[in-house]
Amino acid sequence: MKEYRLGALESRFADIVWENAPLSTTQLVQLxxxxxxxxxxTTYTVLKRLSNGGLFKLEKGTVSALMTRDEFYSxxxxxxxxxxxxxxxxxxxxxxxxxxxxxxxxxxxxxKMIGNFEEK
Length: 120
Fold this sequence. Notes:
The protein has 6 helices and 3 strands; from the N terminus they run αβααββααα. It is mostly helical. 10% of the residues are buried. The chain is elongated and about 45 Å long. It folds into 2 domains: 8-68, Arc Repressor Mutant, subunit A; 70-119. A hairpin with a 2-residue loop joins β2 (56-59) and β3 (62-65). The chain has a 3-stranded antiparallel β-sheet with strand order 1-3-2.
């Protein structure tokens, strides 16, 4: 996947595809008309852009996802940490939590995640 960032509308469009895939282009056009009041051509333009970005595939009138929502946002998060914090997760967490306190539940959840990572 080439590096791709989603704008607000593209993100909502991607969610529609992820929630309904695989789906026909006819179904997608109808969903986008209902959600965004888009014409067919606008739906196809956005679909083409996101397909060129490696998120979706259009084949024989069927739209499918090439990666899940979680996979996409995981890649975006890793890229953000790499570009903004030199790849340092501790630096990211420090910046993220610098203006607020973590709850006990959040601390426990983070510890659990670290423990699961250490086991692998």
